[in-house]
Write a structure and sequence with these properties.
CATH topology of the largest domain: Aldehyde Dehydrogenase, Chain A, domain 1
CATH architecture of the largest domain: 3-Layer(aba) Sandwich
Oligomer: single chain
Strand order of the largest sheet: 16-19-20-15-14-22-23
Helix content: 25-40%
Active site: 266
Organism: Rhynchospora breviuscula
Pfam family, one: Aldedh
EC number: 1.2.1.9
Number of strands: 28
Domain Aldehyde dehydrogenase: 26-485
CATH superfamily of the largest domain: Aldehyde Dehydrogenase, Chain A, domain 1
Largest sheet: 7 strands, mixed
C-alpha cells in the first residue's frame, strides 16, 4: 500500500518512513530519526513516521499563523466548498485509510471503513452547520438596559481564535481528528494535528485528502514524533490559541500547563449501566454485549460497569454469557468482534485488573485467556467496590457486574467515580428513567441503550475527570471562535425628529 497511487508522496521509500505535513508539502525531519508503529496483532513494526524536532514545530506554528490570517478573510462559502471537497476525497479513499486502521490499531476491517465514511460525513455536516452558525450575527440596542437612550448599536459576530492544536486518541484516529479539524477550519482557524503514534499513518493519509482538496499552504499541518520531545513543547507553545484533546490522563497534565486558552478535553470514563427489575432483559443483554465489547472495549463510551438489581442479575448474566459465546475472537483482517488490544502495556494493565478481581473473589463467567495482545472477552460477576475493576477503566474486553439492592445504591456507585462521561439506565418506567438520569453525574445518560458518542452533531461532554467543555459539531464550532463586538455610537440628536 505504501508509496503507491494517490498517497505516493507521503512516503519516503528509501528509508520506508512516512513524511510529516507542513506548509502544504510533505517533509522528512531533519532529526533523521523515526518512531516505530507496532502492529497490535503481529507485535512487529508495521510502519515508521518522522520524529519531528522542536525547531520544525516552531516553523509549523509560524506558517500556520501566517496562513490563518488570510484564511480568516476567505469567504465562508469558500471554506465550506473546500471542506465538502475534502469529505468527498476522504470517502473516495476509504479503503487504503481503513487498511491502515486495521494494521495500526487492530480495528476490525468493517468498522475501519465505517470510521472513514463517518468522518467524511462529519466534515460535510460541519461545512453546512458552520455556514449557518457563522453567517449569523447579533444586533443589540442600548435602550434595553435601564438608564440608557437608544444611542448605541452593538453588532456582534464570531471570529476565529487563531491556531488550533488537535490531539486525537488511538482508538478513532481519523474520526476524532476530523471532529476537531473540520470545526476549526470552517470557523477560520489554522490547524496543527499531532496524531497518536498508533493511528498516525491513518491520520497522515486523512490529512493528504485535505491536501488534495486544495486548502491554502500552511493552513493544515500534521507533525509526528515522540511525546517526550514535542508533546509539552506543542501544548505549551505560545503560537497555540486553542487545544482540542481526546485521550486519557495526559489531558489533565495538558490542562495544567496550557495557559489561558480555550480547552476542549475528553478524558475517558467509567460508563455505568444501571439495570432495573422492570427492564427488557433481552434488550439489556444485547446492549451490555454491544456496549462492553465493541472494538474490544477500547472506547471512552464503552459500558465499563454494570450495576444491576440483584433480583434480575442471574437471568441477565445467563443471557449475556450466551451472547458472548457467539463473539468471534482473532485478527482484525478477519473482521473478528474481539481483536488484539492496542499495545502490550494495555494488555498487561487489563490483566492486572483481572488478577486483582480474582484474588478478591470475583466470579469468572469465562476462563481468562490471553495470547499476546489478544484477550478473550470476560464477564466478571459479584464484583465488589474493593476491587480495582469496580473503579478503573480497563479499556479492554473485560466487564464487571456489581449486584445492587436498590436504585440509590447504583446511583451512589456511579457518582462516586472520578469519571462522569456517559451512563445508561434500562427501565420501562419513563419517570424512573428521567429521575435516575437527573441524579447521575455524567455528561450524557442514554435511556434503554448503551452509551455512544454519535450521532456526531449531538452534544458530547464529560463531568469531573472526564473532561472540559463540550463537543459535537455545533459546540465545537462555537468553542473555536470568539465573539467580537463593534459598537456604533449615534450622535446626540440636534433636533427632535418627526
Amino acid at each position: 500500500m505504501a508509496g503507491n497511487g494517490v498517497f505516493a508522496e507521503i512516503y519516503d521509500g528509501e528509508v520506508e518512513v512516512y513524511k510529516y505535513y507542513a506548509d502544504g508539502h510533505w517533509h522528512k525531519s531533519s532529526s533523521a530519526k523515526s518512531v516505530s508503529i507496532i502492529n497490535p496483532t503481529t507485535r512487529k513494526t508495521q510502519f515508521k513516521v518522522q520524529a519531528c524536532t522542536q525547531e520544525e514545530v516552531n516553523k509549523v506554528m509560524e506558517a500556520a499563523k501566517v496562513a490563518q490570517k488570510a484564511w480568516a478573510r476567505t469567504p465562508l462559502w469558500k471554506r465550506a466548498e473546500l471542506l465538502h471537497k475534502a469529505a468527498a476525497i476522504l470517502k473516495e479513499h476509504k479503503a487504503p485509510i481503513a487498511e491502515c486502521l486495521v494494521k495500526e490499531i487492530a480495528k476490525p476491517a468493517k468498522d475501519a471503513v465505517t470510521e472513514v465514511v463517518r468522518s467524511g460525513d462529519l466534515v460535510s455536516y460541519t461545512a453546512e452547520e458552520g455556514v449557518r452558525i457563522l453567517g449569523e450575527g447579533k444586533l443589540l440596542v442600548s435602550d434595553s438596559f435601564p438608564g440608557n437612550e437608544r444611542s448605541k448599536y452593538c453588532l456582534s459576530s464570531k471570529i476565529p481564535l487563531g491556531v488550533v492544536l488537535a490531539i486525537p486518541p488511538f482508538n478513532y484516529p481519523v474520526n476524532l481528528a476530523v471532529s476537531k479539524i473540520a470545526p476549526a477550519l470552517i470557523a477560520g482557524n489554522a490547524l496543527v494535528l499531532k496524531p497518536p503514534t498508533q493511528g498516525a499513518v491513518a491520520a497522515l493519509h486523512m490529512i493528504h485528502c485535505f491536501h488534495l482538496a486544495g486548502f491554502p499552504k500552511g493552513l493544515i499541518n500534521c507533525v509526528t514524533g515522540k511525546g517526550s520531545e514535542i508533546g509539552d513543547f506543542l501544548t505549551m507553545h505560545p503560537g497555540v490559541n486553542c487545544i482540542s484533546f481526546t485521550g486519557g490522563d495526559t489531558g489533565i497534565a495538558i490542562s495544567k500547563k496550557a495557559g489561558m486558552i480555550p480547552l476542549q478535553m475528553e478524558l475517558g470514563g467509567k460508563d455505568a449501566c444501571i439495570v432495573l427489575e422492570d427492564a427488557d432483559l433481552d434488550l439489556v443483554a444485547a446492549n451490555i454485549v454491544k456496549g462492553g465489547f465493541s472494538y474490544s472495549g477500547q472506547r471512552c463510551t464503552a459500558v465499563k460497569v454494570v450495576l444491576i438489581m440483584d433480583s434480575v442479575a442471574d437471568e441477565v448474566v445467563e443471557k449475556v454469557k450466551s451472547k458472548m459465546g457467539k463473539l468471534t475472537v482473532g485478527p482484525p483482517e478477519d473482521d473478528c468482534d474481539i481483536t488484539p488490544v492496542v499495545t502490550e502495556s494495555s494488555a498487561n494493565f487489563i490483566e492486572g485488573l483481572v488478577m486483582d478481581a480474582k484474588e478478591k473473589g470475583a466470579t469468572f463467567c469465562q476462563e481468562y485467556r490471553r495470547e499476546g495482545n489478544l484477550i478473550w472477552p470476560l464477564l466478571l460477576d459479584h464484583v465488589r467496590p474493593d476491587m480495582r475493576i469496580a473503579w478503573e477503566e480497563p479499556f479492554g474486553p473485560v466487564l464487571p457486574i456489581i449486584r445492587i439492592q436498590s436504585v440509590e445504591e447504583g446511583i451512589h456507585h456511579c457518582n462516586a467515580s472520578n469519571f462522569g462521561l456517559q451512563g445508561c439506565v434500562f427501565t420501562r418506567d419513563i419517570n424512573k428513567a428521567i429521575m435516575i438520569s437527573d441524579a447521575m453525574e455524567t455528561g450524557t445518560v442514554q435511556i434503554n441503550s448503551a452509551p455512544a458518542r454519535g450521532p456526531d452533531h449531538f452534544p458530547f461532554q464529560g463531568l469531573k475527570d472526564s473532561g472540559i467543555g463540550s463537543q459535537g459539531i455545533t459546540n465545537s464550532i462555537n468553542m473555536m471562535v470568539k465573539v467580537k463586538s463593534t459598537v456604533i455610537n449615534l450622535p446626540a440628536p440636534s433636533y427632535t425628529m418627526g
